[in-house]
Amino acid sequence: MKEYRCGSYERLSKEDLKKFRTDESMSIEGQRLIINSYCQYNKLKIVEDYVDDGYSGGNYDRPSFKKMIQDIELGKINCVITKDLSRLGRELYKTGEFIEDYFIDKKVRYIAINDNYDSLKGDDGSISMKLTFNDYTLRDTSRKVKSSLDAKRKAGQYIGSFAKYGYQKDPNDKHHLIIDSVASIVVKRIFDMALNGNSPYYIADTLTKEKVPIPIVYKKETRGLLVTENDGYGIWKPQTIRDILTSEMYLGNMVQNTYEKIRYNSKKLRKVEHEDYIIVENTHEPIIDEDTFKKVNELLISKKKIPSKKTNKYLFSGLLFCKECGHRISILEKKNKGNNSHYTQCCLYSKKGKYGICNIHRVNYNLLEEDLVNVITNVCKSFVNEYDNNLLTKEANLILDDELLKLQKDANNITKEINKYNNAIESLYLDKVENKIDISIFDNLLAKYKDELSRAKENLERLDNQKKDLVSAIDKIDYEKCEKIVKSFLQEKKLNYKLISRLVKKVEIDNDKKVKIYFNFPELSCYVNWFFLAQYGLPKKC
Ligand SMILES: [Zn+2]
């Protein structure tokens, strides 16, 4: 008889802990007890015990789970035992993959005691249904949690773990905020400084120099991170100042739901569109009056626009790139007895050229600009005169194919999901025929699966419509836009950066001073054979 080196795996999430407070078998100890007695009875030897305490089954980013996989790879264990399937993981496809592919691949025996599953004895078909059910429970829980939180947000109740800087949680009601007498003074000062025209960068610098503790230090929210910079007071970031200056929380409005999980089983967050924020007005005392807030935010927006005007001094500023290293190429000025000339230089070379990294990429910018403008003008003229609709269709179809492929991929995944639910429903009926399942559980599960099934079908239909829209929309819009911009370019007597950058995506210069233009519209590219070659002499004495 083959000897098995078993790894026992126990997992308990925070939600499980709350939910099963009374169920001893759910605790880590309880799980271990069940596994140990099973092993004793079946004469299996446990060589390693893996515990993930406080980790959700929705993903596999768990330290002990990873260690277990590592030990499988090393051949240290060849059998995995859990109390039930859901301890291994709750997410349908990944868990199924582990059991149906990975373990089999690695010749690892897998036992889920309470689900009566042992890979040595084979699958009686119930496993996919159980996985489906576990996945459903997870999704359902996360949906329930979110909707109960949303309900609180919509009622203007604060549900964050930490109060916004400037406020503190009301000791009598943790969902209500009251003003923090110390931090609110800093907030007011930040708004005052901004009102006087100071930039977030300057404000951050001032507060840092004055050793005003940064918010997480002030509120002792460092969550195990040790802040040592600036004698432990921390360094203010301009972004923190900007966040404070733009937060409507200081107007007394509760602003929540600004971030969301990218998937129900993921830890990653993404920013929510402003229109989907949950904002409830007048839920707490304001620190800043509306007038000040409005003026400061107008100032912030106008400030942002200034630098872009400054940096685009030349027609092709910011559009030149180094072919070899991909960095920008800057335009430098050389003063020459009242006769200023300009030349280019790779930015990476400027910084690291002394270590032999990249090359100078120096060309005479004045000549280059003249040539580029000529080429672009010719391209635009050709486009207007001899534009070939067939070519457009060809280009558009390339883009279309790409998009359609992406949609098809999504559709395939949903089809897979539909099949899984169909199978789950089928085995549910089989269980019913064989009297393996209680009628109330049957009704319950059937309703749930049908619900998920119709949701998946709706999604599939939505994708189908997207496909149709795409096919009908693609051929006109881009052409019209391109034509408009080309015509405005040709009519313009004095060219500027803005006009150029609407047409040109980038200009690449290589080591041999060959130049390639990339347009924002693929329709234009066919008129330059993708690149033009030119050798540029250096400006004199440069
Ligand atoms: Zn370079």
Total domain units: 3
What is the tally of beta strands? 16
Helix content: 40-55%
Catalogue the unreliable spans: 305-311, 529-542
Q: Give the C-alpha Rg.
A: 32 Å
Q: Can you list the ligands bound to this structure?
A: zinc ion
> How far is it from the N-terminal to the C-terminal residue, by CA?
83 Å
Mean pLDDT: 79
Any overview of this molecule?
It contains 17 helices and 16 strands. By secondary structure, it is of the alpha/beta class. It folds into three domains: 144 residues, Resolvase, N-terminal catalytic domain (Rossmann fold); 137 residues, Putative Large Serine Recombinase, Chain B, Domain 2 (Hect, E3 ligase catalytic domain fold), CATH 3.90.1750; 233 residues, no CATH class. The chain has a five-stranded mixed beta sheet, sandwiched between helices. A three-stranded mixed beta sheet has the order 12-15-16. α7 crosses α11, α8 crosses α10 and α13 crosses α15. The chain is extended and about 95 Å long. Zinc ion binds next to α12.
Describe the structure concisely for a colleague.
51% of the residues lie in helices and 14% in strands. It is an alpha/beta fold and 542 residues long.
Task: Please give the structural blueprint.
Layout (H helix, E strand, L loop, with lengths): L4 E8 L1 H6 L8 H15 L2 E9 L9 H12 L4 E4 L2 H4 L3 H14 L3 E4 L4 E2 L7 H29 L12 E4 L2 E7 L3 H13 L4 H10 L5 H4 L19 H9 L7 E3 L2 E3 L7 E3 L6 E3 L9 H22 L8 E3 L6 E6 L6 E6 H6 L12 H22 L2 H45 L5 H53 L5 H7 E6 L5 E5 L2 H4 L17
Parallel strand pairs: 1-2, 1-3, 3-4, 12-15
Antiparallel strand pairs: 4-5, 6-7, 8-11, 9-10, 13-14, 15-16
Helix pairs in contact: 5-6, 6-14, 7-11, 8-10, 13-15, 14-15, 15-16
The protein binds zinc ion.
The site of zinc ion has 9 residues, from helix 12.
